[in-house]
Known about the structure:
The complex is a heterodimer of chains A (about 110) and B (about 650).
Chain A lengths: L6 H5 L4 H14 L2 H5 L3 H13 L16 H12 L7 H14 L12
Helix pairs in contact in A: 4-6, 5-6
Chain B lengths: L1 H8 L5 H10 L4 H21 L7 E7 H11 L4 E4 L6 H8 L5 E4 L3 H15 L4 E4 L1 H18 L4 E4 L29 E4 L6 H13 L6 E4 L2 H5 L1 E7 L14 H13 L3 E5 L1 H5 L3 H11 L3 E3 L14 E4 L16 E5 L17 E6 L13 E4 L2 H15 L2 H25 L15 H11 L5 E5 L17 E3 L9 H11 L5 E6 H6 L3 H8 L4 E6 L4 H10 L4 H5 L14 H7 L3 E5 L2 H16 L4 E6 L27
Parallel strand pairs in B: 2-3, 2-4, 4-5, 5-7, 6-7, 9-10, 9-12, 10-11, 12-13, 13-14, 15-16, 15-17, 17-18, 18-20, 19-20
Antiparallel strand pairs in B: 1-8
Helix pairs in contact in B: 1-2, 2-3, 4-5, 4-8, 6-7, 6-16, 10-13, 12-13, 15-22
Amino acid sequence: MNILFNSRLLVLLLSSLLFCLGAQAQSSAAPQAASETPSGEVQQGKTLLQSKCAQCHTDSIWRDQRQDARAWEATLYRMMGRGAVWSGSDIHAMASYLATDFGPHSPRVFTPQ
Amino acid sequence: MRDLVGQYLSKSISRRGFLDNMKATGITVAAAQGVLSSLNASAQTTKSVESSAPPVVKTFQGTGGACFAEQLMACGVKYIFGNSASEDAQFYEALVDRPQLNYILTPHEGPGAAMAAGYIKASQTPTIVMQAGAVGLMNAMGQVFNAYKEQTPLVVYSYRTDQSKRAGRDGFEEIANQEQVLQPLTKYTWMARGSSMIAETTRHAFKSAWTPPFGPSYMTWHSDYTQERTRTEIIQQSHFDTRMRVRPNPTEIEAAAKLLVDAKMPIMIVGDEIYKAHAVGKAVKLAELLGMPVTQMRQIWANFPEAHPLWVGNAPSGTLSSITWPKQYDLAINIGNKMQHNGLAPIVPHNVKFIDMRIDYQNMGKVMTTDVPLVGDVALGLDDLIAAVEQLLNDRIRAEAAMRAAEVRRYTEQARLLLKGIVNNPEWNNSPLIADRVTWEVAQFADPDAIIVHEAGSVAMHSFDFNPVGGRELFFYYGGHLGSGVGTSAGVKLARPDQQVICLVGDGSFLFGPHALWNMARLELPVITIVYNNHAYAGPHTRTIANVPSGRMVETGHYMGSYLGNPDMNMASIANGFGVQAEVVKDPLQLKKALARAKAQTLEGKPYLIDVQVARRGIGWTETPWIPPVKGRPMKQKKA
């Protein structure tokens, strides 16, 4: 009966060590092209994402998502109600990065268990 | 006849019972009524010269059921939550002439127990929930689990269907050692060994539940004991349940005060024991004295005013490391938080000095290293700690505290400003609505002292500015057995009729326990229930993927247990079935209008439900999600 209870989510949450591992996993899963020639905002967004999102979770909770910048912005705004303290420009930059490396046409990497 | 007179004057039997018994001895009705009149006159005269307070201890004779009712009254019970139980017949019989005890029939034991727990949480007064034997108990157990995890003093009773002279035969509804089923979920569980022990067992159950740290208790007995006549003592709650309030060790208080004034960046964690002890003002005072930032790990209540400049927000993932600011704390002090661990890392890291103040001694020192344990009632502990800190204050410490407070204020003002930007979500005006828009609209709508019962686990709670001192109050959950929200709301409204009560519930949670809607309609408990209906178990969906990222589920889109649609369920229709007016809304404008209609209904004493169609968001969702290909029709071999 406890299937909606989000304690399971909390089980997944990060220590800083897990963050480092998560960031590596993210790099290996993401296509290389975009990150080789990042624009300033995209690079800034990637840096912000790695520092801010890791407060609470690993990339396992979002790395399979593929969507455009607007939808990524909506995703990030949803985190504000959960305690994320982000500015609109932070969100815009992180969404720019995510739409570059995790956009609608970015390849997926499946790793069957 | 002397016995009968004694029983009548001691209120052990009713007027009707007296007359019936007199008739049974051969006395005519007219003569019996004459005796009764003179007894009433005599009783009136005596009453006028005596105190109206009930005796501390009285001897009572009657059925086991009547003894039970008498002791419940002496325990201070006003409401009894129960589901129909034929073997409790003599208890029901006793209720007829005891209008002080109000029986509330609940159509399912689980939501019934949630309603009782909600009443306790909101009133902080005793009540009891009862079920029919082991079979009813099984339905209630989920909410007993919640009460145990959340430390709610819920007293539970169900009889053993097997009577004492035929127990042990694996009879109808019989299980062996029924009371032991509840052992891991209760502080106290016991089977009374005879009718004369019913009252005493009841006292033990209430005393155990209401002795801090609170928790549920369970009692049972063979059903024939309830029918049997017996003689027993009835004792007032004030003289068996001392509600002990323990004061922390003074030496440890001094050590804690020293650590606090020496810390560069102390941080305070607040928890439910503060709410229970009515000590919010004291927690605020200690924080202000030292300019300490304040946070909270997941609890039932908001235990600190969220608009206070020292409030830095809830810890998003339940560990201190997940708060955005401050990061460089060198000391943490817990005031009454249960500190329930959900991961490997300790909530307070080992390299941070830690003062732990709470009455929940069993959970202290389990995971976190503790420099100063302060076992005690947090209201008393805060009094002592504030006094000890004040003695150590000097100009330098005051100046440091003021500088720290200013630094915290700069952060919290900025954080609050940024949170207002939540309305800039590009999907803000979408239809179906995003969950944050629903929450925001409800926050704009709610009364300044509304109570928000929240069982929408995957929905973020924001924009309410909860304030447990005269402002909006939160009743959340962390037990995790779902289906508590609607029942809790009904119980809260029963306890707090003068405050607006709004129940926020996900469609999945709602479906586990909507039954108390019927109680809202029957008892005229005008709760506004908002269902975030995305036709999905959205939280488990997201967490399932996080547990197996990039796997076959993601590759194929085959998510086994996520989608609740096809066909879509209509929660408004379900509410209508329970006698509650309701409607379905699909966009923000419709929601505003529906909330206005809900308010109008509730002002007339009627509950209302709004089924808000909410967008599914996250990995793998499509307009028509995959469902496992199981259909009955292709399996048919013939028309049947």
